[in-house]
Amino acid sequence: MSAVKILTQRLPAEWNGVINWAIQNDVEDSLKLLIDSSVIHDDFHFLPTIIHRLESNNCIETLSRWSKSDSYAYHLYRLIVCFQSDPSIISDSNILSDQKAAKRQLFSKLNSLYLLSLLIERLPLGELDETQWFERLRLWLVVKAMRAASNRNLQDIFLRNLVRYLRTAADKHPEKLKVINQLMVDANGYHPFSRAIEQKAKQLLLKSGYKSYDVDFLKTLIKICNNNFHPEDFELIQPIYEVVNLLPGATGIQNSSDAETDSETDSYEEINLIEIPEEVDADIVVEVDVDPEQPQELKTLRRNSILLSTVEELQFLPWSWNKPNPIEIASLLTSNERLLHSEKEVEQLLAALVWVALNTGRSFRRALTLQIAAIGDDWTLNVNEQKLVRNQPCRKNSWLPKTQ
Fold it and tell me: What letter does residue 143 receive in the DSSP assignment?
């Protein structure tokens, strides 16, 4: 499979230094995705503020977990870590204050730079877990905006509405903040996090007493959970980064008004919520039909699949067989370099699999399941080409033509 990358050089000269730095550190794609999603092509001075807001311990810890299952979170995680390792590349003097409302700093750009406005806004005061939850939800919207930007959607109405709700909640709207805190979930992975938010929002919609803008917020949140975006000015703002067949695309870009149908309203009542036992530490338990016989490539694409974890992974240990510490990684790289130049083919293959585990989102356990062949439906190690290849993923279509 060949990936086609189209780059449109339209950045001002002031970006040259940081772009060259990104190329040297192999985070050029990550940086350009962040630029597109925040729409700061002509506003280089806003970049330090964005990086500063995304490099908190809470954000880094969350991104490190999400990056294992989502490529956009992985892009953002690598970029922020690289900026942390070389802070001199951007100036701290350009960071905007979080003590001043975003509307008083962005003025006329508040509507177009909606993602930046959310990052500028001060985190709401309250309990520590509520503040960290708001920051994680804000980070989740940044990752969603990067997904939308990869599909040439740099101005999305749904994302803008969600950002406006969060921004006003943090500024001076305690009732909105109460709704946001009611959405709090404790899921670790990116996809479980999205799924839990969706189910919690649907659960809240079954209750009465919410105002119209709260209901609109919850319904829009459900759509974004399912990557149903609503682009605006789709062709007017050209991205600087576009990838075809490399990053996963949004599953449903909608150009209509996207009015809710009766079937969508009824679907909120079809959720099979299970009574939570006392020994289970969770907010929601949902019963869904699963097919444990599905291949791995389909399991990772479907939210209602079963992904088995080892006992070690469920312990969330800081260092483990799948997550070696820095000293072990350094030793492993030295040994791996020797194996790569070995005359024995089996040692070369082992080194290649170790390299895959160290440089991709696959664990060591899953790297050992890679097939060694010319090509396959899942990622396959092609020895002759010395590449990781796979067949282009195809959507599983459940529709079948009628006999008549």
Answer: H
Residue with structure tokens 């649907």? 202
Neighbours of 166 (CB within 10 A): 23
- Using CB atoms within 10 A of its CB, is residue 383 exposed (0-12), middle (13-18) or buried (19+)? middle
Q: How far is CA 153 from the centre of its chain?
A: 15
For the segment 60-97, what is each residue's pLDDT rounded down to a tens digit? 999 999 998 898 999 999 999 999 998 888 877 778 88
CB atoms within 10 A of CB 220: 21
Summarised one tens digit per residue, pLDDT across range 242-274 is 543 333 333 333 333 334 444 444 444 444 555
Which two structure tokens, joined as six digits, stand for 218?
């919850």
User: Counting every residue, how long is the chain?
Assistant: 404
pTM: 0.61
H helices of 5-46, in order, are 16-24, 28-38
| Among 210, 191, 238, 205, CA closest to 71 | 191
Question: d(Cα 72, Cα 51) in Å, to the nearest integer?
Answer: 16
Place of tokens 């809710």: 260
Return the exposure string of 239-275: e unless at least 16 CB atoms fall within 10 Å of the residue's CB, then b: bbbbbeeebeebeebeeeebeeeeeeeeebeeeeeee
99-103 contacts, C-beta under 8 A, 24 or more apart: 101/171, 102/167, 102/171
Angle between helices 71-85 and 28-38 (to 10 degrees): 110
Condensed to tens digits (0 to 9), the pLDDT of residues 346-386 reads 888 888 888 888 877 777 777 877 888 888 777 788 888 77
pLDDT-based confidence at residue 20 (cuts at 50, 70, 90): very high
